[in-house]
Amino acid sequence: MTKWIDQTTWRFLLVGCINTLFGTSIMFLAYNVLGLSYWLSSASNYFFGSILSYFLNKYFTFQKKDKSIGDILPFALNITIYYYIAYGLAKLFSSLSVSMKDNGTMLVGMCLFVGLNYLGQRYFVFQKKE
Length: 130
Fold this sequence. Notes:
By secondary structure, the chain is mainly α.
């Protein structure tokens, strides 16, 4: 059985920090400066962040050396499912003003997404074949 916390976990967290700075900047810029909706703002984070995340996680975190694009569909499916679960759940837990609620729930959604996304990528998308 694979250990829950190992080098892969630490690499995923490092990539997550880089990706979070990138995606969060896009998300809050889209919401607060461009005036896009909650869903478009958070989706833009994950659309652009997912592109960066795919390459960093495939080659650095999970160290898959193949040049195959066969894991793009499972990766996109993983991201999509956990995006809607995380942000849908986060949206349910807020009772603040609209602006505070949306900013707060985007942060909660980000946290939920990180955990779910890690498990999906580790055990579904980039699983090691034995």
